[in-house]
């Protein structure tokens, strides 16, 4: 038998590792001391202590009243840099990436799970093509083809003079104008590739440590002795390191963007050569289009081929895909530019480029993929139904539909506004006063259904407002009975009741999202059919009907067009304001704190995942500290920090997890994550977390719109949940509280007296480890390993 390893004796130290929530904070605020010292980490994310506690392990007698506090600050991972506020423009990519993780729980349905992931990845690919096609529509069709080819439009734009047909210069031929304009969408694709590659290197490239745990046979952290083996997805070694998938998807999406530009440039020249005799043989265009189709099929195959590898830390790269696919697509793009720039003296730009067909195909393809995704999700849910799962497992398809809708609004808004700007006083596509025909008709039809969608939303929103007001009135007597004030204050009662009723609105969000997604799908189908059957914008398509119907159609189209344009401008304005204003930057950063918790599994151009850095940071710190000191550790997470804390505990090896307690407060781990992401935070995974961690307490308030109970009972012991905590602590003025106490809602849980009580109870349940117990435990582990 091998000799037992030397195990360090317990120092008797106790540590509380604090993890803040969304919006971020400073280590000075978290630790309540202006003097702090960075223990480990860098300027992006680090662990801090009070300066006087730096050497606390060497003097445990100085901390008998409570644990040593450490603060893990991770806000710079999301909302620190002002330029990251421009990530708002990548919102559709982030939303479709969330749809990947909203898959219902699946047991023994490997094929269905793979199909679900492949369909989401195809939807993500269609969004990249949609964004690139919108850039091509603006630069190639509206600017180079339509405006530069019409004297009434190019005459008002002096900077377009070298491309204008009336100038008769070398660049005035249609193909050469398209070749010059292709620089814009090509630069956009290159920028997306650069941002994806740079953010991966800056935030997600940190490899997590692999722990040598005798109790684990496949690298998955096991549970404590006597509990059933639970290997949740978030506990797998490769879950927080998706380098291989992101690199492969980045290559595929970059190639898809280049191919879209190549099709727009070279495809126009190929169609002209087929239409009549010219200096360029038509066979060259056929060969070019065949090469485009072949490369596009390769891109689709790469996207569908495989998903994430989480069972082990997969550090390999698909060199063939990464090295050859984007350069091949770029080479085709260069060939298309050269092909289009070939002299064709008789070629005249008339009408529009065939963007109508492209946008119709994208709309039809996205709608079909969403329906297929819904069918797969529903079959998974019926196999393993969980009552708390939102929309009966259709949350992922609903969110994917929203991503497609957001993409359509943003791209259509840009095209509509650029067309209006180029046409000056006229309205594109609306009669003789228009100099250009404008963007594809389907974009106008999609704009016209937006006012209808907003009108439909008025009904549920009004119902929610009325229901919340009635619920607040009903809560009044219960609140006064709870506090038993010596003197009733109707205003105070009404404020508390309103806070509780408003906090409950969070649970109504799934219904609103389901309604919006369903209406978007149906109205989008109507817009597709209307543009296909009529071939004209809604106002002209209704020509010949009653004047009221015609006026209503024109009003809907005009209002919708301005609304999507205003929405896009609002996105840009928010990004610009966030770049200059720190408070606005933090507010917008909260969106990414919630939306970018998950790794980039569907769209490589989505904003980076901060958890791929934060979770390994926390698990490494906990494992290193408990292994070195043999002390007790409470990881204390608020709001989104509680989700990071739970994910880090899942990643711990068994030896470290036995010395760790979990304290969560204001936690969305079940109320939001458990319902929206059931495969990862559903009842099964949360029950497994509860049984694998030493002890867990969760604090929540009825006035908190984000946090809520976990809903898991501890068998033979106290429940996990502690709540609802009183908020406010007292009803009116008292000798102990002479000033009115605020309604805290989601903030400042540590101000509640029960917080310190529950933290002390967790430390007491952990109990001190005596040196002889540590040595016996090491000998037992050695015996099990040799056996």
Automatic annotation (TrEMBL):
Annotated spans, Disordered: 768-787
KW Transport (keyword) present: no
Transmembrane segments: 85-103, 115-135, 178-195, 251-270, 282-303, 324-342, 362-381, 393-415, 442-466, 512-535, 555-575
Keywords noted in UniProt: Membrane, Transmembrane, Transmembrane helix
UniProt xrefs under InterPro entries: AB_hydrolase_fold
Domain of life: Bacteria
Protein name: Integral membrane protein
Originating species: Streptomyces clavifer
């Amino acid at each position: 038998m091998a000799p037992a390893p030397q195990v360090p004796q317990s120092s008797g130290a106790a540590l509380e590792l604090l993890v803040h929530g969304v919006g971020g904070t400073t280590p000075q605020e978290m630790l309540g001391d202006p003097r702090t010292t960075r223990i480990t980490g860098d300027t992006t994310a680090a662990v801090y202590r009070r300066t006087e506690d730096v050497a606390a392990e060497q003097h445990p007698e100085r901390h008998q009243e409570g644990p040593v506090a450490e603060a893990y600050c991770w806000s710079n991972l999301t909302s620190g840099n002002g330029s990251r506020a421009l990530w708002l423009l990548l919102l559709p990519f982030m939303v479709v990436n969330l749809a990947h993780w909203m898959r219902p729980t699946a047991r023994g349905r490997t094929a269905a799970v793979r199909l679900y992931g492949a369909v989401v990845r195809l939807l993500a690919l269609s969004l990249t093509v949609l964004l690139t096609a919108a850039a091509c529509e603006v630069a190639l069709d509206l600017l180079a083809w339509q405006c530069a080819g019409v004297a009434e439009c190019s005459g008002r734009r002096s900077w377009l003079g070298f491309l204008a047909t009336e100038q008769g210069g070398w660049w005035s031929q249609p193909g050469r104008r398209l070749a010059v304009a292709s620089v814009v969408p090509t630069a956009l694709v290159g920028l997306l590739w650069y941002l994806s590659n740079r953010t991966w290197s800056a935030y997600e490239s940190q490899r997590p440590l692999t722990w040598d745990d005798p109790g684990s046979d496949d690298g998955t952290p096991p549970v404590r002795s006597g509990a059933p083996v639970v290997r949740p997805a978030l506990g797998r070694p490769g879950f927080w390191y998706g380098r291989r998938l992101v690199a492969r998807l980045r290559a595929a999406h970059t190639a898809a963007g280049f191919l879209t530009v190549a099709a727009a440039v070279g495809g126009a020249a190929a169609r002209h050569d087929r239409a009549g005799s010219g200096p360029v043989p038509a066979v060259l265009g056929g060969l070019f289009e065949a090469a485009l189709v072949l490369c596009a099929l390769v891109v689709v195959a790469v996207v569908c081929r495989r998903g994430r590898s989480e069972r082990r830390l997969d550090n390999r790269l698909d060199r063939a895909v990464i090295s050859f696919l984007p350069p091949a697509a770029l080479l085709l793009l260069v060939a298309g530019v050269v092909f289009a720039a070939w002299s064709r003296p008789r070629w005249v730009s008339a009408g529009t480029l065939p963007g109508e067909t492209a946008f119709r195909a994208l709309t039809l393809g996205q709608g079909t993929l969403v329906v297929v995704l819904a069918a797969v999700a529903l079959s998974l849910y019926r196999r393993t139904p969980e009552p708390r799962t939102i929309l009966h497992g259709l949350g992922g398809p609903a969110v994917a539909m929203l991503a497609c809708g957001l993409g359509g609004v943003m791209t259509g808004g840009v095209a509509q506004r650029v067309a209006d700007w180029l046409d000056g006083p006229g309205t594109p596509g609306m009669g003789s006063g228009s100099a250009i025909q404008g963007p594809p008709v389907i974009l106008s039809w999609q704009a016209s259904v937006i006012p209808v969608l907003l009108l439909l939303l008025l009904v549920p929103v009004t119902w929610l407002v009325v229901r919340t007001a009635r619920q607040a009135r009903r809560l009044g007597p219960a609140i006064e009975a709870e506090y038993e004030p010596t003197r009733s204050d109707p205003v105070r009662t009404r404020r508390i009741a309103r806070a509780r009723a408003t906090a409950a609105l969070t649970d109504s969000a799934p219904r609103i999202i389901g309604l919006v997604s369903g209406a978007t799908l149906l109205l989008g189908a109507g817009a597709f059919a209307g543009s296909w059957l009529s071939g004209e914008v809604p106002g002209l398509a209704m020509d010949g009907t009653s004047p009221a119907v015609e006026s209503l159609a024109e009003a809907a189209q005009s209002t919708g067009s301005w609304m999507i344009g205003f929405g896009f401008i609002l996105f840009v304005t928010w990004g610009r304001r966030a770049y200059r204003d720190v408070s606005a930057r933090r507010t917008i950063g909260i969106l990414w704190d919630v939306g970018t918790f998950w790794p980039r599994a569907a769209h490589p151009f989505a904003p980076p995942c901060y958890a791929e850095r934060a979770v390994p940071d926390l698990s490494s710190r906990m494992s290193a500290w408990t292994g070195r000191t043999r002390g007790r550790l409470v990881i204390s997470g608020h709001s989104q920090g509680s989700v990071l804390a739970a994910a880090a505990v899942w990643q711990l090896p068994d030896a470290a997890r036995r010395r760790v307690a979990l304290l969560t407060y204001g936690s969305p781990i079940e109320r939001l994550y458990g319902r929206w992401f059931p495969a990862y935070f559903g009842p099964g995974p949360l029950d497994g977390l509860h049984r694998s961690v030493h002890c867990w307490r969760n604090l929540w308030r009825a006035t908190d719109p984000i946090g809520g109970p976990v809903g898991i009972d501890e068998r033979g012991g106290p429940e996990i949940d502690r709540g609802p905590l009183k908020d406010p602590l007292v009803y009116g003025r008292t000798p102990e509280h002479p000033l009115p106490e605020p309604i805290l809602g989601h903030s400042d849980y540590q101000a509640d007296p029960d917080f310190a009580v529950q933290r002390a109870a967790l430390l007491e349940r952990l109990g001190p480890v005596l040196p002889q117990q540590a040595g016996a435990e090491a000998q037992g582990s050695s015996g099990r390993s040799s056996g």
